[in-house]
Amino acid sequence: MNKSIYFLAGLPRSGSTLLANILAQNPAMYVTPTSGIVDMLTNVRNAWDRNDAFQATNRKLSEEIKLRVLQAMLQAYFAHTDRPICIDKNRYWMEFLEMAAALLGGRDRVKIIVTVRDLRDTVASFEMLYRKTSALGQIHQEANLALKFKTAMGRVETFVDDAQPVGRAYNAIRDAITRGWRDRMHFVDYDALTRRPEETLNRLYAFLGHADYPHDFENVEQTTVEDDYVYGFKDLHVIRSQVRPQPPQWSQVFDSTVFNTPVWKNIEAAAHFWKT
User: Fold this and answer.
1) Does residue 20 sit within a domain?
2) pLDDT at residue 43 tops 60
3) In the sheet that 29-34 helps form, which strands lie side by side, from edge to edge?
4) Distance between CA atoms of residues 128 and 155, nearest Å
5) How many Å apart are CA 217 and CA 241, to the nearest integer?
6) What distances in angstroms separate CA 275 from CA 117, 182, 188, 270, 272, one per listed residue?
7) What is the DSSP code (8-state) at residue 91?
8) 14-51 as b/e, with b when 16 or more CB fall inside 10 Å?
9) Phi, psi (5° rounding) for residue 11?
10) CA-CA distance, 186 to 94, in Å (whole number)?
11) Inter-CA distances, 155 with 74, 131, 138, Å
């Protein structure tokens, strides 16, 4: 099989689904919806080390076999497509880049696309999704943190918590940089993607080392479909068919009740963290 495998990660609500479906126009590229293979790989990795039989096996041999099994799992995950370039989408690949390097055969083979967006708009986008969903439903966080979700400020604090979507993804990106992976990461700014899509895609292709492709930004067909009921939010992974600039929304979504808090000031200070 020997597919060329890359990764798509980054902040939630930062255009990763849009980018995935743009790239899927290229007949050489297969892009997953949110993928669970990184979870399966880590589960097997961790269970292997806890298994008594493998613990009793020659340690060096066991490690060699484990590596081959994990490599085979990753390649087999893409065996159903004949497209030679495969991009696996999961924002938590950032936490496992060392494992990715081992599975791909070296650090230099790791290339990860990282979608980013003004953190203020990332949080505002979740707030708008909450309001849309709450008309007739309840998201998972609200079910578990009912009192916290009674206010906009409580919801903001939840979204950026280390264990929640924005906070965990942000920390994963920052920590990957700390661990020395910056040169293997290519940031795709949501604003740049929606304002200058052709230029943005050309830079992405240059990073991946593949020839440009003439994408149609007026008719982006959604080929990666996810049942957003699983995640609790309505239309979490639904895209527009035309790539158009999206003006900042955070100043209309929130007011001074939020803006004057320490949490928001921290968000504002890190709004464009990937540029520093």
Assistant:
1) yes
2) yes
3) 29-34, 85-89, 4-10, 112-116, 185-189
4) 11
5) 8
6) 11, 12, 11, 10, 6
7) G
8) bbbbbbbbbbbbbeebbbbbbbebbeebeeebeebeee
9) -75, 150
10) 12
11) 36, 11, 13
Q: What is the domain extent for residue 102?
A: 4-35+77-275
Residue 48: inside a domain, yes or no?
no
* CB within 8 Å of 43: residues ≥ 6 apart: none
Within the chain, what is the greatest distance between any pair of CA atoms?
A: 62
Mean pLDDT of 177-203: 98
Q: What is the CATH number of the domain that holds 145?
A: 3.40.50.300
pLDDT at position 236: 66
Which pLDDT tens digit goes with each residue over 53-65? Answer: 999 999 999 999 9
CA distance 100 to 248: 35
Based on the structure, what is the number of domains in the chain?
1
Residue 248 lies in a domain: yes
Give the torsion through C-alpha atoms of 221, 226, 228, 229, to 10 deg.
130
Encoding tokens for residue 178?
């700390």
Cβ 155 vs Cβ 148: under 8 Å: yes
Confidence category of residue 230, pLDDT binned at 50, 70, 90: low
Structure tokens at 213: 């492709």
Tally of CB atoms within 10 A around 211: 9
Residue 87 domain-assigned?
yes
Q: Answer whether 0.85 is exceeded by the pTM.
A: yes
The first and second tokens of residue 106, run together, are: 């070296």
Residue 224: per-residue pLDDT: 87
* Integer Cα distance of 6 and 112 in angstroms: 6
